[in-house]
Amino acid sequence: MPVAEAPGVTDPPPATSEPPAIAVYATYGVGFAGNGVAMMLKVVIPLWAIELGFSASQIGVAISLSSLLPFLLSIHGGVLMDRLGTRRVTMTFAVTTALLCPLYPVFPFFAAMLALQLITGLTSSMVWVGAQSLIVRFTKGQTSLIARFSVAARCGTLLGPVAIGAIWDLAGPWGAFFFAGACGLLVLVALKAVPETTEAGSEQPEKPITRLTDLLPNWRDYARAFSMLAIPTVAFVVAMTIMRNSSTGIQTSFYIVYLNEIGFLGAVIGLLVGISEGAGMAGALMAGWWERFIRPHWVLIGFVVVSLVFVSITPVLGGIFILLTIATFARGFAQGLTQPVMFGILARAVDSSVQGTSIGLRTTSNRLAAVVVPFTMGLVADAVGIENSFYVCGGVLIALCGIVAVMVRRSSDFRT
Q1: CATH assignment of 19-202+228-414, given 1.20.1250.20, 1.10.1740.10, 1.10.8.60, 3.40.640.10?
Q2: Cα(31)–Cα(39) distance, rounded to whole angstroms?
Q3: What's this model's pTM, rounded to 2 decimal places?
């Protein structure tokens, strides 16, 4: 499998020819709509759990379960996209998400929520895997184009929380979940404009499904995906993905619970989450600028730590809206900046023929954090209180980033 050679594996690529405009803009649309729906669910699920009277541990379990199947099956989903066509596979998952969202208020029980979280967590995650796979293939690792994709995706995550929070206050759970399902159909509109090829510039059409085994997980695919961890750059991206997504795991779980407990309305909570996502657009546009002066791996580590710091200090801000706004903006800016840097590093580390598999591997590590962080934080919150759980979990995650930084510093593959 062709890979970039060290020590320049994380160097920004030179400018290349522009990919087809229709493909790029359609993929922006998939990222916008898919991420928007995913963020709507991340905001509305904790509010729904609080309304049903769940304990902190139950809320942590419910939120964590949405990432369990993506953790187990993201690699397989990426392989299916490489094998059967990203567009086709993504469309299937998008339809499933849209149909299942309205079922949450129909079954207001803990067991039903867990079941729906398992399925919608997988389907909405796979839509995002599809969007990432498409943009990486079409842009060939060009940070500037990937940054624009990140901006489009952030537009969805900016508008989604604000809209769903307001609709929750106005129309309650029924209106909120039906609205999320309706917005899920927008992904299909964007996917219709994506070229029906497995790779940008390729004449190879989407492959037909000839056997049931084409759809089932294969241990060889997992072995091939995990073998990519032998590439130091890929291993680094996987490790930092876990740290980076832990910040999101905190903000889309007990950050929402904490704000609700101190009296904030759903619309205000959605606005604060949306501000964070909106700030990510500005951060994404700054990624290329930072790479001119600092090596991409140090940019990634530094801004992941920044995002963790600003979400961990939430209880210190005393429920003051302006301070919460500044902190959530700073967290979102850092989070958004790291996304195109991370995608660019990964795109330059592996061959385009296995981009879907590499994205699946990254998403697996992403979802590992999304499973572990809310579950662990729920247990910590029950033991020492929600406020202290921010300090405990945030402190541990920042320390782990420090360990990764030391290892990178000592590795010859990242020498400047």
Answers
A1: 1.20.1250.20
A2: 12
A3: 0.70
Residue-wise pLDDT for 102-146, tens only, equals: 999 999 999 999 999 999 988 888 888 788 777 777 766 566 677
Q: What is the pLDDT of residues 295-330, one digit of tens each?
A: 888 888 999 999 999 999 999 998 899 999 999 999
Is the Cβ–Cβ distance between 135 and 27 less than 8 Å?
Answer: yes
The single residue listed with the structure tokens 């030391």 is 406
Give CA–CA dist 131/134, Å, rounded. Answer: 5
Name the DSSP class of 64: H
**What band does 8 get if pLDDT is binned at 50, 70 and 90?**
very low
Structure token pair of residue 51? 């309304």
For 89, 210, 305, the CA distances from 298, given in Å and listed in that order, are 35, 46, 11
Nearest to 304 by CA among 255, 245, 347, 254: 245
* Six token digits for residue 321: 């809206």
Rounded-to-integer distance, Cα 362 and Cα 367, Å: 9
